[in-house]
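Sample intake sheet
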Amino acid sequence: MRIGINATFLNSRPTGIGNFTTDIARRLCDLGDDVVVFSSQSVGNCKTVKTPLSMEGSERFINNLRRFFYINSLLPLLIRREGIDVLYCPILEFPFVPISGVLVVSLHDLHPLYFPEQFGLSAQYFRCSLKALSYMSKRIIVPSEFVKRELLRVCTLDDKKIRVVYNGYNEGLYTYGIVERGLCESELSIDRPYILFVGSLFEYKNVKTLVSAFLRIKDRIPHMLVVIGKKALAQRGLVTDDRIRYLDYVDLDLLPLYYSCADVYVHPSFFEGFGITLLEAMACGVPVISSRGGSLPEVGGDAAIYFNPYRDDELAEILLRVLSDKALRSEMVDKGLENVKRFSWDRAASEIQEICEEACRKG
């Protein structure tokens, strides 16, 4: 079986879904599969069919338009030329025209459906892609039982085509260890203890509730709030304060240090299809406070403390409790380190491989 991976969207500064794609592709190659990646970026030891730089990424409309035409014109020809048996699409971007192999697609969440104003024209494309899923794809992979239930609720799909494959995290990068405060100060230039958030700054991420909760209690704690995410995605501006630091992008190799040096990680989203950053924080030995949005309790298990994403006062109270209770933080760290054992990219890649084989065999 020869697997093709449509990674035409990848760029040189991957976040979220980009990291998911590169991690899965590398591990599929390590499993011994014959894998071809269609991308402008090289991925591990996989054979790469280079695609134009002018269509990578997702923030520029013209790049997305070029990629749409490429996927529906040149990509099917390349699939035939490379003898691809299964085309795996790590995001909801796939050919709307027939291809020589079978199609397997990952759907990570339904954000463009629930928050269309935050995604512009991409929300309409998302809707069209959802409709095409039922007759174009042989299998649909989702990262949580929550997303599967939501997908079946909004679409007419055969539930036998939908497979749940939990995401993993980079176990070699995010590891638990003792980090000296001096290292945090010298490497990160942060001279106070801090509360951390990592993720895009779309409104559904609900950073405003985290900021509001922090401002409620900042005079009672010595901490800063550090927010790592693309500021350009914050549609209504960001609250400024001398104790809040916004970082637009952090190099992947440095991100584990930001986690490890934090006193607590907070994920306030209204809705998530999975929530890899919870695992990254837990793996680094950081207590996690999370909203109950979407799949987050499914991912965090009993290791996180949860709050109503619409209640900044509830979050403020939990923050005070966690930051002031050393025994509680230690218990949360232990539970987090145990919880992350449930998740692995190796396991995810192996399950995706099995799904591709099944799709190829049974159709």
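Comment: The longest helix spans residues 345-362. The mean pLDDT is 90.
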